[in-house]
Amino acid sequence: MKVAGGAGTRTDDPVGASTDSESGRGLACRGTRNNALGPHGCTSTCPAVTWDGASVSRNQASITGLDVGCGWKVSGLEVPAGGSVQATATVSVSPADQDALDAWLRAGSEATTAATQDPDVKGTVYAVQRLKGVEVRTPARVVTPSPLKITLVPVWAGGADELNPLYVSPASGKPSQMLAAVSGGEKGVRFSDGCGGALAVDSAGLTVTALQITPQCTVRASVGNFTELQSPSFGITSRENSSD
To answer: Is the CB of residue 165 less than 8 Å from the CB of residue 138?
Structure first.
């Protein structure tokens, strides 16, 4: 039996062995996931769970900001591009029938989705599950010849998070843990010219220079599995005209 779970496809058998599998798309991703395995039947306590195939600990709402009953923090999984990985949770439950088992599994999946897509959750925790989009930001005007500052802003259920950028180019220092989680670091980031040669991109695809004067220009970007990104239009001007 398979049901859609908050972190991929969940496969369960009637004796209570639950397998969470995460499938990779264009690029490898890694990082922590959240999964809820709630009470069953008349009990109000979380069931005993034994995990295999991942590093697992209880989700602590005071640390993660994610309040989900019987939630687990699953880490140590790296999903290869186009591949999948599995972590198995053996749960001691005794459903009355298949319908009861299905309802319990569905409740866990819905609790996981509701928690990871809660617009009130702040911060970058569980980025792989929570990230809904990426915005490409640039200055409204840039002087030629000079590097173009590009900011990749994560978009959560609660909106764009300008305080915690996913990536800033030109880069300095180590990539953030969030970037490592959703794209494997800088190897999952690429920029390209969106205005017919007015921009030059270095061989690594990470640094962009404004070369030619133009009133309208855009830069294209891909990060992880977000591959069709584009900035709003900006202008490129000369140093002589920059003070006008």
So the answer is: no
Number of residues that make up the chain: 244
Helix (H) or strand (E) holding 177: helix 177-183
Residue among 3, 87, 5, 107 nearest 47 (CA): 107
102 and 147 inside one domain:
no
The contacts of residue 178 (CB under 8 Å, 6+ apart) are 31, 124, 127, 154, 164, 166
Pair 32, 117 in one domain: yes
pTM: 0.80
Instruction: List pLDDT tens digits, range 134-175.
Output: 999 999 999 999 999 999 999 999 999 999 999 999 998 888
Q: Is 82 left (phi over 0), alpha (psi -120 to 50) or beta?
A: left
Same domain, 27 and 121: yes
Which tokens hold the place of 183?
A: 């794209």
Final residue belonging to a domain, choices 126, 152, 175? 126
Residues 84 and 140 in one domain: no
